[in-house]
Structures are given as C-alpha cells and as structure tokens.
Amino acid sequence: MVHRGLCARQLGRNEEAIASYDQALKFQPDYHQAWNNRRIAIIKLKWQKLTQAVTGFLRIISFRR
C-alpha cells in the first residue's frame, strides 16, 4: 500500500496516495513512514488546490482588463 501511495504521489494523484496510506495505516498504525508520506501528500494536495484557485483568480482578473 505504501509503494502504491508513493507512485500515486509521484504522478500527482495525491488523493489516491492519501487513500493508499490510509489503507496501509489500517494494517500497521505505527508505521511512521506512511504517516510522513501521507502528510506530504496532503500538503501537495492543498498546494495543488491553492495553485488552481490562484490560476482561476488570475484568469478572472485578465477578463476585466
């Protein structure tokens, strides 16, 4: 599950990566590397969403000129 999460994260599929880490943590809740990788995927997902929001906002501004 952790390897699947790593692959998904490298492909930019962060939601899928988080789900994979969640599955791995069900079997081994004290697996610190899975917790760390999950944290990184969450940060990347939030950064991805923020980037999309800013891009959309800049597009709106460009229409007003």
Write structural notes for this entry.
The chain is mainly α and 65 residues long. The chain has one domain. It has 3 helices and no strands. α1 packs antiparallel against α2, α1 runs parallel beside α3 and α2 runs antiparallel to α3. The longest helix is centred in the C-terminal third of the chain and has 32 residues. The protein is elongated. The protein starts with a helix and ends with a helix. The model has no long low-confidence stretch (mean pLDDT 92).
Task: Summarize the helices and strands and which ones pair or pack.
Blueprint: H1 2-10, H2 14-27, H3 32-63
Helix pairs in contact: 1-2, 1-3, 2-3
Task: Summarize the structure in short.
The protein has 65 residues and is mainly alpha-helical.
Q: Give the overall pLDDT as a whole number.
A: 92
Q: Strand percentage, roughly?
A: under 5%
The biggest beta sheet, please? none
Order of helices and strands: HHH
Number of strands: 0
Terminal CA distance? 49 Å
State the main characteristics.
single chain, 65 residues, mainly alpha, 85% helix, elongated
